[in-house]
Design goal:
By secondary structure, the protein is α/β, with parallel strands linked by helices. It has 8 helices and 11 strands. It has a 9-stranded mixed sheet, sandwiched between helices. A two-stranded antiparallel sheet has the order 7-8.
């Protein structure tokens, strides 16, 4: 099969790297994700990745502890760099050329984010991992994914979840009557208060007409299936 999309942004939560533990990095999980990304790259798809840092640190927790919110968020950005370097190592271990670009300069470990350079890497079929969020506190990695997708002109954002297979009207773990949506508009998502991504990220996607597909990463091969056009999870687009 051929790919439906030529250039994608894959959004991974930090928890997606930790498996059942919910904390730290699980080697088997990160290797599985790397293998799935390789399958997509071999289809000729130009692939960017944004990974969260919640498996190591959450700025919200630090803020609740009384820590200055900006400092707590900067720590979260550093956590995303750790995850990005781990994912880069797993990808390159299976032969996929990868570049990590950070919004906060740390040249000893990664390139600084430069839009034109990122696009050039993509054109050379290298995977580009965007780390350290937007470089600013108070913004989530969801917003980073939306911003980078707009900047590099990605055709879609794939939001891979490790504990849910789409968007529901309520938490399916606690409410068995929760309804799964196959399709949604960004406006519906915002109006109904569905916690898929924060309002800043949603507005960026809506304003730049970037569709979002929310699906489960638990079943191996799902990233490739979504890229090939198989109807998995929930698709969000338009107004």
């Amino acid at each position: 099969m051929t790919a439906r999309y030529g250039r994608i942004v894959l959004k991974l939560s930090g928890e997606a790297l930790s498996g059942q533990e919910g904390f730290g990095i699980e080697p088997a999980i990160i290797k599985s994700i790397a293998k799935q990304v390789k399958d997509v790259v071999e289809l000729g798809v130009e692939t960017c990745i944004v990974v969260g840092g919640g498996n190591i640190w959450r700025g919200k927790i630090g803020s609740e502890m009384g820590m200055d919110r900006a400092n707590a968020d900067y720590m979260g950005m550093l956590a995303t760099v750790m995850n990005s370097l781990a994912l880069q190592d797993s990808l390159e271990d299976i032969g996929i050329q990868t570049r990590v670009q950070t919004s906060i300069e740390m040249r000893q470990v990664a390139e600084p984010y430069i839009r034109r350079k990122a696009i050039r890497h993509l054109e050379k079929k290298r995977v580009v991992i965007f780390a350290a969020g937007t470089g600013n506190p108070y913004f989530s990695t969801d917003t980073t994914a939306a911003l980078r997708a707009a900047e590099v002109e990605a055709e879609v954002i794939l939001m891979a979840k490790n504990n849910v297979d789409g968007v529901y009207s309520d938490d399916p773990k606690t409410n068995k009557a929760a309804t799964k949506y196959d399709n949604l508009s960004y406006m519906d998502m915002l109006n109904e208060g569905l916690e898929v991504m924060d309002s800043t990220a949603s507005s960026l996607c809506m304003d730049n007409d970037i569709p979002l597909i929310v699906f489960s990463i638990t079943e191996e091969g799902n990233i490739k299936r979504v890229v090939e056009g198989e109807d998995l999870g929930t698709t969000i687009r338009g107004k």
